[in-house]
Prior knowledge:
Structural class of chain B: mainly beta
Number of helices of chain B: 0
Largest interface: A-B, 25 and 25 residues
Shape of chain A: globular
Order of helices and strands of chain B: EEEEEEEEEEE
Radius of gyration of chain B: 13 Å
Helix content of chain B: under 10%
Strand content of chain B: over 45%
Structural class of chain A: mainly beta
Strand content of chain A: over 45%
Number of strands of chain A: 11
Order of helices and strands of chain A: EEEEEEEEEEE
Largest sheet of chain B: 7 strands, mixed
Number of helices of chain A: 0
Distance between the termini of chain A: 40 Å
Radius of gyration of chain A: 14 Å
Shape of chain B: globular
Distance between the termini of chain B: 36 Å
Oligomer: heterodimer
Amino acid sequence: QVQLVQSGAEVKKPGSSVKVSCKASGGTFSSYAISWVRQAPGQGLEWMGRIIPILGIANYAQKFQGRVTITADKSTSTAYMELSSLRSEDTAVYYCARGGWELPNLHFDYWGQGTLVTVSS
Amino acid sequence: EIVMTQSPATLSVSPGERATLSCRASQSVSSNLAWYQQKPGQAPRLLIYGASTRATGIPARFSGSGSGTEFTLTISSLQSEDFAVYYCQQYNNWLLMYTFGQGTKLEIK
Lengths: 121, 109
């Protein structure tokens, strides 16, 4: 049974950074890509970027380039997403999701439970 | 950037009836399309991938069709647990883009 378990809710000040973790169990961590998707309150889903742990390669959505860093620790099967220069518009639930890293299997078959990040002064 | 447009924004259907949700891509995505269901307070759940393949454990009343730019998710006989928000998503390795539609809220009529 694959599970992605994320770290707990965070409250951050504008201009600071947040780092969210996503620990995988029940599958082969390095054989998949881990993506990060966020959802602002009452809004839709927005892909931020992904990492392929076995290759150590991360790719980012253009919107977040320079502000997001996604890393992975294969020894603990944990992925991390760090978002810097936080502003109020970054208040959202952040999800990690597992997917393949080559077509046709790029869909997300397992998701973490979500981490609420609140940015407020 | 490939833009995904879902319609309608809200769909009101009675239990036991059929629901048809649409998703249009601004350019061809071949069959690289998935559908997800999301209930309040929960993470999205994969329903369909490759435009028409049901994910593991998804009931047969859910079906997906289409290719290129036009896609449809059909729920043949709505159950109470099907009322939720549905998102389509295209995935494109060449552009390294995963774009979601804005969602369709399926509500009880």
